[in-house]
Please model this.
Amino acid sequence: MLLAIDVGNTHTVLGLFEGEEVIEHWRIATDARRTADEVAVVLQGLLAQSPLLKGADVDGIALCSTVPSVLNEMREMCRRYYGDVTAVVVEPGVRTGVPVRMDNPKEVGSDRIVNALAAIQLYGGPCIIVDFGTATSFDAVSAKGEYVGAVTAPGIEISVDALAAAGAQLHKVELIRPRSVIAKNTVEALQSGIIYGFAGQVDGIVERMAAELAEDPDDVTVVATGSAAPLVVSESASIDVHEPWLTLIGLRLIYHRNTM
Model:
C-alpha cells in the first residue's frame, strides 16, 4: 500500500492507497516542533488503529511539504523507520510532468504542482484549482498541462482568527451557513460575511483568471480542494467539481511516475 503525506502549514493530511483508491485517511495538526521520532509514533499509532489495513504493510511513501523544518523531520522519519520502503519526496529533480511557466519556478510550492498534475489527469485542461487551506490558493493550468500562474489570498480560518482578534465585540463562530444572507444577530452576521464573502471572492477571482487562461472561459474547469472547501463549494457559482483528495491523488501519480 502507498502512504501519501501532504504537509501543510496548518494541517498534515495522510492517505492510504490501495491501488487508485484512498481507503483510509487522517488529518493531524502540523507541528514544526515534532521530531522524527514523534512523527513516527503518531504515524504508527494511526496505522495500527485502522481496521482496513488487515495486516498489510506500507510499501511506498509519497510526500510533499510546504514547511521546510517539518520536511527535514519527515525525511529522517522515513530513513529511520521506513528505510526499506521506497519514498518519493516532491522537490526539484523529481519528475512531475508539469512544466512550470513562472518567473522563478522554485518559488512554487510543491503542493501546488502536485494539485496541478492531479487536476490535469482527472479533468483535463485548462483548469483552475482553488485550494482552501491556510491561504486560499488559485492555480492556473493551461490546456497543455502547464502551470502558468497563481493567485494567493488569505484563508478562511486565518481571516476569522484575525477578525476575532481585532474586534472587541466579535468572537470566533461555528462556520456554518446562516439562515439568511441578511442576518438578525452577530453570530449569523459573521457567518454570512464569511461564507458568502469568500464565495464571492472565489467567483470574482475565477472569472478574471478564466478570461486570461482561455479564449472561451467556459472551457475552464474549476476544481476545489482543501479542508475548508465544503464551506464554500455549495455557495460558489464558479466551482465545477470538489475533489477533497486532490493532493493525495497527485502524490500517488508522482510516486508511480518516479518508481515505475
Notes: The CA atoms of residues 102 and 148 lie 6 Å apart.
